[in-house]
Amino acid sequence: PPSSPPPRSAVVEVKMEQGPEQQFQLFVDVHGAALRASGVPPLYWESLQQKLAQEVFDAGDVFGIMRVEDEADEDDSEKVSLNTMTPPVYQVIITKEDGLQATDANSIFLIDHAWTYRVDQARQQLWDTPGLLHRMANLTGVGFHGEVPDDDTIDIVLADLWAFSHTYKLSQGTAEEQVPIWYVMDEFGSQIRHSDEPTFQVAPFFYGPARVAFSLLWPVRNLDHGEEVTWDHAHGEQNPLVRRCRLLPWQPADFKDIDASVGEPPEEYFKAVFTDNNEKLPLPIEPPVYQKDKKLKVYSDIKQVLENLDDPRFALTEDEEEADIIYLFNHFKDFRTLSEQRPRVMVNQFPCENLLTVKDCLAAVARRAGGADGPKWLPMTYNLCTELPQFVSCYQQREDRGEDNHWICKPWNLARGLDTHVTNNLNYIIRQRESTPKVVCKYIENPVLFERDDIEGLVKFDIRYIILLRSVQPLRLYAYNVFWLRFSNRPFSLDHLDDTQKHFTVMNYADGIPLKQIHYNDFIPMFEKQYPKYSWASVQEEIYKSFVELFQVATAKPAPSGICDYPSSRAIYAVDLMLKWDADDDGRRIMQPQILEVNYNPDCVRACKYHPDFFNDVFNVLFLEEAAGHNATLLS
Q1: What are the backbone angles phi and psi of residue 275, rounded to the nearest 5°?
Q2: Per-residue pLDDT averaged across 368-394, rounded?
Q3: Residue 147: φ, ψ to 5°
Q4: How far apart are the C-alpha atoms of 158 and 151, rounded to whole Å?
């Protein structure tokens, strides 16, 4: 596992007057947990501490890089690469005359990192950093001898770099700061080849006092002079099939004989999700009943609720114990105690609602609809942690058939486009499995676009609907009549896949990037003018049908395999979707809704800004079940 930097408070400067024993103990206190997690034997810790403190890079005393002449690589012709050159093959060997002893406490070595980057910044860094493109081109064997970077060369380098990049993530900081970091080891580290029977282990390590990352290299056995230094690129992977998939960037293989279809996971999957989520299911209760003239007391920690809920039938309270409604920002876990002690208290969450709001679970429950191919309203989705071989087979089969192979990798439980990647590079997708748990979804290559006059082009857009779930059994589902739109800033095309302003619509969280806003009432006539054969009413009818079907399958089974039927629960969700071009059974061109994600406790700043009665409407529908006059449409 990659190591992470300790909190700044834990990074203590080593004072000159401290003795070696004190310095080493401080090092162990700060870094011991990371070293243990990475499997670094304690035998090497003291030597490592000294090498880090004194910046000792002594690998050159023990190792040498040797070019392998006339080595025939039978798989080179199958390698998926934009690079038409045949890169030279190197190996790292032991050059020390008496070899290397694994029992020698000094047999641990520092490898510097040639480049550290986040994927969304990689292209710009290759453009802007003097010498970086030349260095990465040399590493990957790409022929580049120009003085000025160009996009074509950068595309090739970025595509081939997934055989050289490795990753770690920070365990502290904001969500943006915890987006995985990728790095390329220096020329020495990058030439260490893979082996299923490695002679060394390699692990990233963040050194607190210098706030810099290295890779650590240590032997797993004694080695003689001339023996090759190798490491296992799929270290720790026990499943033989998954291991072969993970090694594809270095060892091409054919997986097309594997069945690419995936169905609903077994019950054990949902039980494991429930256990990991640490929820306690409620006991059965009777639905809460309040007199119609009762003013319901609301306890909330959400700023927009506190500032905008002013309907006279509700009263805010700072005392949670006297509340009739608890409306919280964070996830509520202990439904059992709530059902035992305060069954009449209503709460803005359902047990097991993460089956909708976490992307791998959303795909899992959605497979209950639509047969083997899944529902038409959800892009084809694979869980990279549990369905990697099926995905690789699907990718290779599509490639053989000449079908579009653009995909989007998304973390299970992050929003705002963080750590999200669009690519048609199989190696890129496979390597994403090593950073954070992700799903990979078929990228919508034929989206319905919107013409923006201000940039004179057709751009992607997505739509956010607020869905109100009042009960599970029976299913009572409403849609808020106001929806919100987000637009890309650059005309759409299937190139420059790392251009977030072309391929993403989330612009409201980025500084200095223009945010295009169109109110839904203005959007509808503009849309119908651009697409006169498609009325918005008919499009929205299909959108609503997809919402109903999603919630039907999500509530079709008892918890933990479905959303729990708890009569005191209510919830709002934001469903983000796009429209894509498809054909119906008669071959007619249609706009097919594509649900992208379901968000718990969505950001309602814009909703309250432009519709000050938003939370009055929401509370009336959810807690009083009065939709008339409150901007809500009953769906089910």
Answers
A1: -65, -45
A2: 93
A3: -90, -30
A4: 10
Among 95, 87, 85, 86, residue whose Cα is nearest residue 65:
95
pLDDT for 7: 43
Determine contact, residues 154/80, Cβ cutoff 8 Å. Answer: no
| Tokens at 576, concatenated | 């983000």
- In this predicted structure, what is the pLDDT of residue 172? 74
pLDDT-above-90 percentage for the chain: 82
Query: Rounded to an integer, what distance in angstroms lies between the CA atom of residue 113 and that of residue 136?
Result: 12
Beta strands in 85-153 (DSSP E): 90-94, 109-111, 113-117
H helix runs in 39-150, sequence order: 45-54, 119-128, 132-140
List of E strands, 19-163: 63-67, 90-94, 109-111, 113-117
Average pLDDT rounded to a whole number, residues 178-189: 93
What residue has token string 């039980």? 271
Predicted pLDDT at 11: 40
Q: What are phi and psi of 308, to 5 degrees?
A: -120, -15
What single-letter DSSP state applies at residue 334?
Answer: B
Q: pTM (2 decimals)? A: 0.90
Position 89 scores a pLDDT of: 86
The residue behind tokens 């001898």 is 145
C-alpha 338/C-alpha 324 separation (Å) is 12
The order of strands in the sheet holding 63-67 is 63-67, 90-94, 228-231, 193-194
pLDDT, tens digit (0-9, with 9 covering 90-100), for 42-72: 999 999 999 999 999 999 999 999 988 755 5
| The pLDDT of residue 124 is above 60 | yes
Tokens 């970086």 found at: 132
Q: Please write the tens of the pLDDT for every residue from 595-622.
A: 999 999 898 998 999 999 999 999 999 9
Distance CA 567, CA 146 (A): 68
Q: Which two tokens stand for residue 120?
A: 């969304």
Inform me whether the pLDDT recorded for 83 exceeds 60: no
Max Cα distance, the chain (Å): 91
Close Cβ partners of 216 (under 8 Å, ≥ 6 residues apart): 38, 40, 48, 108, 109, 110, 111, 202, 203, 204, 205
Contact between 484 and 518 under an 8 Å Cβ cutoff? The reply is: no
**Distance separating alpha carbons of residues 476 and 511, to the nearest angstrom:** 39
Q: What are phi and psi of 387, to 5 degrees?
A: -130, 30
Cβ count near 586 (within 10 Å): 6
Q: Is 203 within 8 Å of 232 (Cβ atoms)?
A: no
Instruction: Name the residue type at position 279.
Output: E
Closest CA to 553 of 277, 331, 270: 270
- SS3 call for 558: coil
